[in-house]
Amino acid sequence: MTAYPASNLISALPTLFDAHGAVDLGATRAAYTPLAETDLDGVFVAGTTGEFTTLDDEERLAVCAVAADVFGPERTYWHVGAASAYQAARLTASAVDRGARRLAVLTPYYFPATGSALLGYYQAVVAAAAGVPVYGYLFAARTTVPVSPDLLARLAATGLAGVKVSGEPTATVGAHVAALAGTGLPVYSGADAEFAEVVAVGGAGVVSGVSSVLPKPFLEVRDALRAGDADALAVARERARRAVDATRQGNLAHLKAVLDLRGVPAGGLRAPLDPISPEDRHALAADVADLI
């Protein structure tokens, strides 16, 4: 098989809360510390997996700062996307002041932003970043803001350093890769289970929520891709698929239950989701026992 030596695995990290729903920075650090001992290529902080829509700006920056301290600034992508250019630019400037060296920025959300508004949004963020690399984050299913490959090329020209595409099939990721051909900008997918497919269409790798609690199978996939080892890749892909299935495609309650299984008390959710049931927790423990 073809080797993909530049394949990267970035883990999307959860945020931990205490019994009263407050951000628990100590527990968050405890969850991040063992993951930092792996050779992950990076971590994506305070994104969808990090329940960012439930955090105020100061909480979000504090969680990102903990991650940067644990993983190092070069491996940490601070997510500073917001519903408006005003808020995103303010978050960006604050993150840079606190030492951010990589930024990720979701498109505006809720209101269906126009193409011209998106261009203004990223121009404002790139200016506020003052030279710190800014990676765009596209997630039409959650934001109501689709970005076509042609529009992405225009957004990239504002000074983006790369892009993450979530909630889209690999063929669409490939179209975004093609739109940026010749720019050298990396395109990542949020599809945990499609790592091999993503790099096969020219993607740089995946930003994976499941790997934040079950990193081993995804690191095995990455290493097999880098080595061009078809046999190892087949085994690793099956293990990664099992991890995705066991956590119900990265359901936040299931991800935090895995942390509990690993001996890291994960607390509850702020996101309006049901907690994992005792029956599901028991099944999860059996399903992931050999993946931890």
TrEMBL record:
<protein>
    <submittedName>
        <fullName>Dihydrodipicolinate synthase family protein</fullName>
    </submittedName>
</protein>
<keyword id="KW-0704">Schiff base</keyword>
<comment type="similarity">
    <text>Belongs to the DapA family.</text>
</comment>
<keyword id="KW-0456">Lyase</keyword>
<dbReference type="InterPro" id="IPR020624">
    <property type="entry name" value="Schiff_base-form_aldolases_CS"/>
</dbReference>
<dbReference type="InterPro" id="IPR002220">
    <property type="entry name" value="DapA-like"/>
</dbReference>
<dbReference type="Pfam" id="PF00701">
    <property type="entry name" value="DHDPS"/>
</dbReference>
<dbReference type="InterPro" id="IPR013785">
    <property type="entry name" value="Aldolase_TIM"/>
</dbReference>
